[in-house]
Amino acid sequence: MREKTFILYTKCFILENMQILAIETSCDDTAVALVKAEKGNFFVMDDYVSSQTKTHAPFGGVVPNLAARDHLKNLPLLLKKIIAKNKIRQNNVDLIAVTQGPGLIPALLIGTNAAKTLAYAWKKPLVGVHHVVGHIYSNFLQDSTFPFPDYPSGNSSRSNLIRFPILALIVSGGHTELILMKKHMDFRIVGQTLDDAAGEAFDKAAKILGLGYPGGPIVSAYADKFQTSAKARIFPFPTKRPGIPQSQALPRPMLNSPDFNFSFSGLKTALLYTVRDHPRILKSKKITGELCAEFQQAVIDVLVSKTIRAAKKFKPKTILLGGGVSANKELRKQLGEKIKEVMPNTKYQIPDAKYSMDNAVMIAAAGYFKWEFSKNRKPFYNTWRNLEADANLRLNK
Ligand code: KG4
Ligand code: ZN
């Protein structure tokens, strides 16, 4: 049995010990996890993710009904495996957590129905988790051997604590949001994309450049390989284009707008026109790679600048990064460097790379916190009777 220990980096409160079975099927990954919360630590007992990349690759994006078909095939297999390997029985599971939304409704229905069935059969409480909340709480899972700082038996450094207020930048295939949290399970969206999500923009860029699917990891791998200094760039671009400095090939949409919102569809269109007007770009791996680096930098410039602007206004003690795009090494690095430069007293927290992408461990962590902080409050309370998948689930639900 695999066992991994994490610390709950948060302020002291009385934490229940419990074992959580979690399910995630909001998009194109089927995931299950068994997580034990004990004495202020998370122990990941087991977790599995079954990816559907091969199914969706020919279409260049996720096809909802094909995703549901794969979830329907894979989820029972993963549940059977995790239950058998860990000898999960009615008497050793305390809570079931499942992604309730947002996401693709045919996909969400597979996970929520499985979770409701288990909750009914085992007579266990059930919590529906917002997918973005899962990404936020992936930051509360940290590799460490130290015990929980504020827990009675704990002794590790308090500097490791994630302190409120928190400003979270969540960037994934479906979301680009800046979220302010003054306490656990309290979310205020202070900025969001007006059109495409950051991950979606990466996916579309890869499609335009003929690089395959999913785009984020491929575009960033190309960018890493062929990145050159700005001065050495050999883009075949005209010298003067309105609103774009000569050192840049692509625009930074809404970089200077006074709000904390984002827009990425114009960036994608600029890339499309660049390739249309200079088809020889696609013939050279080097120039394609340089364009990938420029595209990646355009996204990062906007994300970093808006996050810093929001941080200056809301003065968080911690800035968190989360969502699939948080796997991007340059984004992780450049946001960290900027925070260190302009607000060195603010803690910067990024998730373990393997929990950046969709997984069920983060759903278990978020489900645990939701349960702990809201078990006596009705609106949060789900059972197998009333939990319903919701493609447009709102954050504070
Ligand atoms: O959170 P996630 O696994 O699924 C959603 O909730 O959407 O995020 C997937 C997104 C995809 O758009 C993928 O292209 C992007 O995250 N992504 C990346 C990287 N790895 C994954 N984007 C940029 N750089 C990466 N290294
Ligand atoms: Zn996600």
Care to describe what's here?
- The protein has 397 residues and is α/β, with parallel strands linked by helices.
- The chain has two domains: 182 residues, Nucleotidyltransferase, domain 5 (2-Layer Sandwich), CATH 3.30.420; 191 residues, 2-Layer Sandwich (Nucleotidyltransferase, domain 5), CATH 3.30.420.
- A seven-stranded mixed sheet has the order 6-5-2-3-4-1-7, with helices on both faces. Strands 10-9-8-11-12 form a five-stranded mixed sheet.
- Helix 4 packs across helix 10.
- The radius of gyration is 22 Å and the shape is globular.
- The site of zinc ion (ZN) has 6 residues, from helix 4.
Describe the protein's topology.
Blueprint: E1 4-7, E2 18-24, E3 29-38, E4 41-51, H1 53-56, H2 64-85, E5 95-101, H3 105-122, E6 126-130, H4 131-137, E7 142-143, E8 166-171, E9 176-181, E10 188-192, H5 198-208, H6 215-226, H7 265-277, H8 285-314, E11 318-322, H9 329-342, E12 347-349, H10 361-374
Helix pairs in contact: 2-3, 4-10, 5-6, 5-7, 5-8, 6-8, 8-9
Which hetero compounds are present in the coordinates? 5'-O-[(R)-(carboxyoxy)(hydroxy)phosphoryl]adenosine, zinc ion
Average pLDDT rating? 87
According to CATH, the homologous superfamily of the largest domain is ATPase, nucleotide binding domain
Report the strand count. 12
Count of separate structural domains:
2
Rough shape? globular
Helix-and-strand structural type: alpha/beta
CATH class of the largest domain: Alpha Beta
Low-confidence stretches: 143-157
Arrangement of strands in the largest sheet: 6-5-2-3-4-1-7
